[in-house]
């Protein structure tokens, strides 16, 4: 193992030296025995956000010549800075995946400046001009897959009422809530949805209570945007409801009610990116994508999903893949009656306006603030 | 010599026994997981204190624990069990950021603004814990429960404020306050990555130690801690002393929050509540409520925290492994406490002065 006792100066010198060798052409040899570090904010077996990344890490581990080191349940504090530094200084990692939103600023930016020879790949899509060039940030338009789930939910609901368990009223989450209902309303415009915010990313007890309460209010298809959908899906299954998953495939948790789900596709992307890096290519600093770029996928349909639903959902997915279909287009009203997108306006997924979404569309009961 | 040295064998032996017993039990646990305990212990050593990098990692993690440990140990001198340091920590951070953002625009020298920030953090944390003391002697509310409940309230209030009045409009997907400008951030100890919060913590521990063991005030506090009624009978201002100690305790945790935001995070988000306040309880118990002993104990726990990463990276053990270690340590410690009386009697037939 690498034995160094890095004072700040030696780190800088070491970093510079490493960068030097990389430039001179040691890159091929270095790549052959690359160490890649993954850092997760929660448990890597949470059936959710962290597991999706851990599955990506597992795919990387299978690649020849790569060593993978992982660390889970690292809070978005100095613990994250230390975990990254530990992987670089004690394990010799040259590529890091700090996968939680809050790792980026200030921890990852500082680390990237201190270790110019290490590549940092952050999940969250936050990189802006002026940030270090060895820092990268990516995120996916997963609302496309949520919209597809919404179509299936729209076909399956009998009560015409859906339920959504959400963590926080922030743009990313609001976007998924709206996409889910818009997908369902593309099947039947009379469908409504109740959303309940739990207040934080991982609140198992509260999530179970909320799911039960949605069931009591008559919702018959449930989905969620929390870090670990496990509790929501299991509770809904117990209540005999249909569910749509999020982050990963939760079908094993709900064999009777799991319709489909919106999943990340890191198992495809991580090996692809690393192969490109090893081949000497450079990585863009700001990376985004949806179905078209294979950032996301849908869980396989449950056996109960009828052909009509599959056909419509497949058609929407084909539209996203072709890049000629948009979820958010005018005229669109929020649930307070204000027009939020004017008639004739079409916002495609890349539109920065969507990044600051602050409303719930008409038909959603709940408050975004 | 002070109380630390007096009967030091009797004081030191139980925690040392507890640590040894923990290491044996934890080795069994590791073996059951199919991990060689010696490899694991070597990695824990490497990750905690094996290299200069590890030392810095451990010391950075120890810094907040010094101050949150005091939040438990100081009221304990008066016989009060405060476990809500997390709330004082969080409110201290919030007040410090509010003060820094407000005073930062007045054109004052940076150092003065930082002093104002520290004062704001100390006051916010101090007031909330002093309230627990007040509720204790005014209404007879159990301070353990009230301080814990206040911690929940404090975290909820913080979440409300960072999502509402103090929210940085640019913090879309992660509600947070505005970030402190770089000139107001606390620096690091030259030549290291350790921020000056560690020095604050050590000074606070030393000051608390001197106050408790070498001043009349501290002596009076320990009398009250031994028997509050006796304290009243001899004319000690028990209420005012409780308030003072609780304020100092909360102030320490509040200063910890100020350091966390001014040296590390830069802005307050929900990530400010990381459990440093709760780990402080463990630190104080392990230090047997002695402010001086908090220093090595906090470094030890900071080291264990730092080593957790290496266990995961090299041995693929889950993060919960270190929680198991901490849990075993805590249980062993409480058991050792029960042993304490018998041990001291066995070791020292003379009656020991009641100092701890």
TrEMBL record, chain A:
The keyword Signal applies. Residues 35-281 form the ABC transporter substrate-binding protein PnrA-like domain. InterPro entries: ABC-Purine-Binding, PnrA-like, TAT_signal. GO terms for cellular component: plasma membrane. The keyword Chaperone does not apply. Keywords: Signal. It comes from the Bacteria. This is BMP family ABC transporter substrate-binding protein. It comes from Acidisoma cellulosilyticum.
């Amino acid at each position: 193992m690498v034995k160094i006792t890095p004072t700040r100066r030696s780190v800088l010198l070491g970093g510079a030296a490493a960068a030097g060798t990389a430039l001179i052409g040691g890159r091929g040899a270095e790549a052959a025995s690359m160490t890649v570090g993954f850092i997760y904010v929660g448990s890597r077996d949470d059936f959710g956000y962290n597991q999706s990344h851990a599955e990506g890490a597992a795919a990387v581990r299978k690649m020849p010549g790569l060593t993978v080191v992982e660390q889970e349940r690292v809070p978005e504090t100095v613990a994250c800075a230390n975990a990254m530094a530990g992987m670089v200084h004690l394990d010799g990692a040259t590529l890091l995946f700090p996968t939680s939103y809050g790792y980026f600023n200030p921890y990852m930016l500082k680390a990237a400046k201190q270790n110019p020879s290490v590549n940092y790949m952050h999940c969250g899509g936050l990189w802006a001009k002026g940030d270090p060039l060895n820092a990268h940030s990516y995120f996916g338009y997963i609302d496309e897959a949520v919209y597809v789930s919404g179509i299936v939910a729209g076909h399956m609901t009998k009560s015409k009422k859906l339920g959504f368990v959400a963590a926080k009223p922030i743009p990313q989450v609001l976007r998924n809530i709206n996409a889910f209902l818009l997908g369902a309303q593309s099947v039947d415009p009379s469908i409504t949805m109740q959303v309940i915010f739990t207040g934080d990313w991982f609140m198992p007890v509260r999530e179970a209570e909320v799911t039960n309460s949605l069931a009591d209010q008559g919702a018959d298809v449930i989905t969620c945007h929390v870090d670990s959908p496990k509790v929501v899906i299991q509770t809904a299954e117990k209540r005999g409801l249909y569910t749509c998953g999020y982050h990963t495939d939760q079908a094993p948790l709900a064999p009777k009610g799991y319709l489909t789900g919106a999943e990340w596709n890191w198992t495809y992307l991580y090996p692809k990116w690393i192969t490109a890096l090893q081949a000497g290519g450079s990585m863009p600093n700001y990376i985004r994508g949806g179905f078209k770029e294979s950032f996301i996928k849908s869980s396989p349909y449950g056996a109960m999903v009828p052909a009509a639903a599959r056909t419509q959902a497949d058609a929407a997915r084909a539209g996203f893949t072709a890049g000629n279909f948009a979820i958010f287009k005018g005229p669109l009203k929020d649930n307070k009656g204000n027009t939020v997108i004017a008639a004739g306006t079409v916002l495609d997924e890349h539109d920065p306006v969507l990044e600051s979404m602050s409303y719930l569309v008409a038909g959603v009961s709940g408050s975004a603030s | 010599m002070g109380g630390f040295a007096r009967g030091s064998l009797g004081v030191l032996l139980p925690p040392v026994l507890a640590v040894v017993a923990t290491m044996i039990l934890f080795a069994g646990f590791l073996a059951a997981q199919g991990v060689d305990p010696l490899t694991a212990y070597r990695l824990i050593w490497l990750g905690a204190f094996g290299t200069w990098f590890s030392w810095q990692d451990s010391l950075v993690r120890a810094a907040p624990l010094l101050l949150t440990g005091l939040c438990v140990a100081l009221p304990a001198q008066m016989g009060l069990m405060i476990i809500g340091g997390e709330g004082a920590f969080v409110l201290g951070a919030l007040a410090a950021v509010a003060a820094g953002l407000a005073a930062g625009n007045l054109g004052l020298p940076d150092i003065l603004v930082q002093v104002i920030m520290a004062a704001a953090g100390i006051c916010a944390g101090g007031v909330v814990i002093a309230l627990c003391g007040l509720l204790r002697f005014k209404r007879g509310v159990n301070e353990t429960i009230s301080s814990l409940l206040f911690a929940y309230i404090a975290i909820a209030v913080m979440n409300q404020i960072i999502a509402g009045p103090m929210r940085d409009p640019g913090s879309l997907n992660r509600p947070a306050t505005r970030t402190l400008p770089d000139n107001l951030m606390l620096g690091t100890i030259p030549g290291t990555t350790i921020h000056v919060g560690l020095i604050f913590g050590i000074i606070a521990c030393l000051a608390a130690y001197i106050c408790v063991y070498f001043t009349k005030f501290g002596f009076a506090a320990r009398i009250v801690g031994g028997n509050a009624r006796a304290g009243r009978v001899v004319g000690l201002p028990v209420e005012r002393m409780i308030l003072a100690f609780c304020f100092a305790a909360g102030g320490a945790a509040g200063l910890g929050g100020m350091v966390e935001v001014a040296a590390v995070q830069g802005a307050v988000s929900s990530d400010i509540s990381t459990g440093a306040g709760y780990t402080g309880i463990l630190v104080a118990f392990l230090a047997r409520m002695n402010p001086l002993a908090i220093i090595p104990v906090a470094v030890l726990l900071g080291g264990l925290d730092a080593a957790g990463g290496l266990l995961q990276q090299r041995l693929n053990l889950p993060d919960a492994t270190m929680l198991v270690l901490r849990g075993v340590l805590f249980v062993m410690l409480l058991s050792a406490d029960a042993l304490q009386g018998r041990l001291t009697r066995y070791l020292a037939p003379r009656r020991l002065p009641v100092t701890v």
